[in-house]
Specification:
The protein has about 150 residues and is an all-alpha fold. The protein has helices at about 1-20, 25, 30-55, 65-95, 105-130, 135-145. Helix 1 packs antiparallel against helix 3 (about 30-55) and helix 3 (about 30-55) crosses helix 4 (about 65-95). The longest helix is centred in the middle third of the chain and has 30 residues, at about 65-95. It is elongated.
Length: about 150
Amino acid sequence: PNDFELLVLVFLYLSLYLGELQNFYNLFAWWDLFLHSFSGVILGAVGLALVHTLNEHQVSIKLSPGFVAMFAVTFAISLGVAWEIFEFSMDSFFGLNMQKSGVPDTMWDLIVDAIGAINVSLLGYWYLKSDPKFIEKLENRLLRSRRS
């Protein structure tokens, strides 16, 4: 969907162009944490959309908003962990410095990933409880933008 593509492009611009090429990672101590928070929000939203789509179109059981929100959190955190494993592997095998300060960097990255994911999941939970058709409306809007 166009909205999601725009978010991903903004994230790539912030991380690759500003972060790496313009040296924001070294200029601003908070830059890496900001990007991990942002990725937690994006991945949490993907988790919400994924489980909702499966719930509505593929699975014959009705999942509660609490389950949908919990899945979104665990989905986002799991991908954050996979990214940290990737960083560690690149540092170990190729002598890169993706983790910057090692364990403290990794732990703070995972903490802010979780905070971003929890926030978007709580928002998703609230929307699902107050308007059960919210994600369906959002999904229809995104699919319409995809067709145009």
